[in-house]
Amino acid sequence: MTAEATPAPAEPAVAGPATARPVAGRRPRAGTTAGYLRYVAGKLGGAAVSLLAVLVTSFFLFRLIPGDPVKFMTGGRPISAAQIAAYRREFGLDLPLWRQFTQYCGKALTGDLGTSYQFRTPVVGKITEALPNTLLLTGTAFVLYTVLGIVLGTRSAWRHGGPGDRVNTALALTLYSIPSFWLGLLLIIVLSVGVGPVPGLFPTGGMESGGEQGLAHVADVAHHLILPVVTLVAVEYGQTLLVTRSALLDEMGSDYLTTARAKGLRDDLVRRRHAVPNALLPTVTLIFVNLGRTVAGVILVETVFSWPGLGGLFYQALSVPDLPLVQGLFFVFAASVIVMNTLADLLYPLLDPRVGR
Q1: Distance in angstroms (rounded) separating the CA atoms of residues 267 and 261
Q2: What angle (nearest 5°) sits at the alpha carbon of residue 276, between those of residues 160 and 32?
Q3: pTM here?
Q4: What own/partner pairs with CB < 8 Å and gap ≥ 24 does 349-356 have?
Q5: Predicted confidence (pLDDT) per residue in 152-166, tens digit
Q6: Where is mean pLDDT largest: 43-52, 79-88, 203-212?
């Protein structure tokens, strides 16, 4: 047997760099500043390439949609060939496809997403107008289903196999598998229209009834907000719960948790201070992806509840087709997810220094 294969006897620790040994359970130190900067540069470069790909895709993808924007703009009325040519010239539809593409990219890089065919206003203005409504709806739902998913997912994992875990997991899987538009329609039928002895308690759609001011207006908007928020929370919280539960279950067999319990720490402290922080990486990714989707909104839910946000605007533009508005909204939706994913990647080294090494 060689000397390398023979286990060496334990030696007392001696001060000095030559005999320093890593301590079990301690995280490795973060990489150098240069290494982290290379990591950041790589992530930013990848995000830039993704945005460019989205810009190209948004132009060519929606030109496959059947329908003539000129016919929509004329309301289907019979018009002369000269008038059709004038409309096409006004919106640049008479140019070769490559010229339309280069003009679109050039303007987009300066923040100009074109002019809407149906509204005859800049696309950026229409997006800015509808964005607060979307953020109100999806932002409220995001906070609720994120908190609910993390709390219930943590409790389910910590008491896995128990009655609470089985009920939470089954309910999360069931609700997550339900299409959001179907659940929204069901809630409208039961809680807005009313079924049998159940009266209609909520509006069937829209954001406000109109005519209200001050606190009455706030209460009116909140009343209209309840059903779409409940729909989004019911469908989305299950994903956060399942990801949190799975990540925490992977951590629960780790040696550092056994050590923490052996030191006499209460079970609650072991969970909050040790297990949950180390299981956060997959959940952080999901949170940032969902945060990006709050800008995109939820097209089907906004359409079902006639909510005047970006999702409803996208559906309206797609039915024309209003090419500049559809392209602009698609770019904003995709860009918001890309930006949030990049921010999550840049945050990882702060949560786990091994990522940025």
Answers
A1: 7
A2: 145
A3: 0.76
A4: 349/30, 349/31, 349/36, 349/39, 351/277, 351/280, 351/281, 351/284, 352/27, 352/281, 353/27, 353/28, 353/29, 353/30, 353/31, 354/27, 354/28, 355/39, 356/30, 356/31, 356/35, 356/36, 356/39
A5: 988 888 787 888 889
A6: 43-52
